[in-house]
């Protein structure tokens, strides 16, 4: 009887060990994590603005536990490879940016495989067996990239794609002591995504006055110059027109005397030889044209008051509107 009970106990112990091993194997098989990422779109970007542009993206992480588990927590590490700063491209043209773990843009998103820091998060088993959590990441296009061009004088899309060779999900389930990302070797697949920005044509324009100064009787012509400065997206074709001012006639401009009364005729020209009146393309006038470089381009405005019978003394002026079309 004693021998029988001893054999029975040994069989129970062995069965218990086998059962424990089976449960452990099932647990290891069932406890997994996966991830998927959203695209990141910076929308329309004007390089000549000089300001950084921001956007956000997200990674959705799903982890599954066994119904009964000895490892209720899991460390998830999201690795993103590639060099920094990162670049979106269109052909050979590039736009610098980077992806960050924080909204202060202080911690770049990296990978244990490049010796940098991945995004990491610890999840704890819910009441059920599956938990999905979303992690936000942050993108910023660096400012001060004024020469980034458009192509074919149209809005141009720049992109970077992160595929299976640059993204990886590592994870480790644990009971009490959390591992660190460099020590985690279980790979849960990849989470490919893309980043894009639309570089747009844009222009800034400014001007300095044409000041003829103080004159007495206008027995001879008087000349003075001003400037118009345009800053347009690299590759952006543009033209600058000048309106007729108070006269409403680009071919016969006049300055009005303060307080009303008499006028002084004058004209503005695009060339130093005073052969091309600068207007809106009507009545024999021409417009300035150019192609943006991303940096400032300055045009001289040549002004001339022709000799004319003595106007009434006073202060004469006109307001001209310069319009840039692109």
Structure report:
The chain is mainly β and 326 residues long. The chain has 2 domains: 30-199, Immunoglobulin-like, CATH 2.60.40; 203-325, Immunoglobulin-like (Sandwich). Helices cover 9% and strands 44% of the residues. It has one helix at residues 2-30; strands at residues 32-37, 40-45, 53-64, 73-80, 86-90, 93-100, 119-124, 130-141, 156-162, 167-174, 186-187, 193-199, 203-208, 222-232, 237-242, 253-257, 263-269, 288-291, 296-305, 316-317, 322-325. Strands 13-14-19-17-16-20 form a 6-stranded antiparallel β-sheet, with no helix packed on it. The chain has a 5-stranded antiparallel β-sheet with strand order 1-3-8-6-5. The protein has a 4-stranded antiparallel β-sheet with strand order 7-4-10-11, with no helix packed on it. A hairpin with a 5-residue loop joins β16 (253-257) and β17 (263-269). The longest helix has 29 residues, at 2-30. The radius of gyration is 36 Å and the shape is rod-shaped. Keywords: Signal. It comes from Paraburkholderia acidisoli. This is Fimbrial major subunit CsuA/B family protein. Residues 23-150, 190-323 form the Spore coat protein U/FanG domain. Residues 1-30 form the signal peptide.
């Amino acid at each position: 009887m004693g021998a029988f009970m001893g054999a029975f106990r040994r069989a129970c112990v062995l069965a218990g060990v086998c059962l424990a091993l089976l449960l452990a194997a099932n647990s290891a098989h069932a406890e997994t994590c996966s991830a998927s990422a959203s695209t990141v779109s910076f929308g329309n970007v004007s390089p000549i603005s000089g300001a950084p542009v921001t956007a956000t993206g997200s990674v959705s992480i799903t982890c599954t536990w066994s119904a009964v588990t000895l490892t209720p927590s899991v460390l998830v590490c999201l690795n993103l490879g590639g060099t920094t700063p990162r670049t979106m491209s269109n052909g050979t043209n590039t736009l610098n940016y980077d992806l960050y773990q924080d909204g202060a843009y202080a911690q770049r998103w990296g990978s244990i495989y490049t010796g940098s820091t991945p995004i990491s998060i610890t999840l704890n088993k819910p009441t059920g067996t599956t938990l999905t959590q979303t992690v936000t990441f942050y993108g910023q296009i660096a400012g001060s990239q004024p020469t980034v061009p458009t192509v074919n004088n149209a809005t141009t899309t720049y992109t970077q794609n992160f595929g299976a060779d640059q993204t990886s999900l590592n994870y480790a389930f644990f009971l009490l002591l959390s591992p660190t990302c460099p020590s985690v070797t279980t790979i849960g697949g990849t989470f490919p995504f893309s980043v894009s920005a639309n570089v747009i044509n844009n222009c800034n324009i400014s001007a300095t006055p044409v000041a003829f100064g103080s004159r007495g009787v206008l027995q001879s012509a008087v000349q003075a110059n001003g400037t118009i400065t345009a800053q347009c997206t690299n590759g952006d074709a543009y033209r600058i027109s000048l309106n007729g001012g108070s006269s409403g006639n680009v071919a016969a401009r006049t300055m009005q005397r303060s307080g009303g009364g008499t006028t002084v005729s004058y004209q503005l020209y695009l060339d130093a030889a005073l052969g091309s009146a600068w207007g809106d393309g009507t009545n024999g006038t021409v417009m300035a044209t150019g192609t943006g470089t991303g940096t400032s381009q300055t045009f001289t405005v040549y002004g001339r008051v022709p000799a004319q019978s003595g106007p009434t003394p006073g202060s004469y002026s006109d307001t001209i509107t310069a319009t840039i079309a692109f």
